Amino acid sequence: MDNAYAKICALPRAIGLQDQIQPVYLPREDINALGVKYRRIPIMSIGRDIYCDTRLILHKLEEKFPSGALGAPQPDQKAIEKLLESWTIDGGIFVRAAQAIPTDMPLLNDPKFTKDREDYTGRSWDKKNIEAMRPEALTHIRDAFVFLETGLLADGRQWVLKTEKPSLADIEAVWPFHWLLELKGALPHSLISKEKFPKVYAWIGRFSKAVSTAKSSAPKPTTLKGAEAVKHVTQAEFYEPEGDVDASDPLGLKKGQDVESWPIDSGFKHHDRGQLVSLTSKEVVLVAQSKVGGRDVRIHHPRWNYRTRAVSGGEAKL
Fold first, then answer.
1. Whole-structure pTM over 0.85, yes or no?
2. With a cut of 50, which residues of the chain have pLDDT below it?
């Protein structure tokens, strides 16, 4: 994700939640000051461990704070949860949702924004090109609404896994549709409406209400200014143990080796570099130096849809 409301979220050990709003487009000087080149937001830090990619962030929150975990307890439910995560992101739902944005959005008149999004996606954000892609995108989004209405939600269940309250499976499935419904003009009423998809609209409405209820009862974060957020992170200790490198990993990388890592689906021109400290089937962790006091930070990337390779003398080695 990469939007106007995304943040640096800092979670110091049992102290509280801090956040810091980031600009809609680059440069994002606060993230750069941390030594992080990853260009998508949000990112999350727990101490000097910095987590990139919403999927990894959710995984870490579920793991580190099990008392509030929303993930499914049963293997078959976990499978549905994982499939829905893949459907919305890797299956193209989010890409099609982004292509459905209305061309009268004020930001599309800002050349800095459109240039930034072209760098982010690798495609043109000219209004004419967006308008040309909208019919195809809306066709795919309508098909997704049909799947939800006549498949996943067809039996009238309140939540995806028939739970008493929303679970992580609901979050994985609902967010692109929730976003589109809040984006005025994105979905033409003649194609997608409450009358055509009553179960989907009711589900999204329940989710929106549940989020509002959770917000009202949750601890209020302290909003930090940029320099404060950077100082807060760099003066903390590392949160996780260092970890190790899986000797059986197909990449054949070694602990302490200089590497670079980056996403390959979007934001792929921005590579994080540093010394490899941990490599598992799910995560790559490298140490980079912040620009504040020369203190190292650990940057965590997921493995799925990311590429990691050795670098030597400033050049990548295949």
1. yes
2. 1-8, 10-15, 318
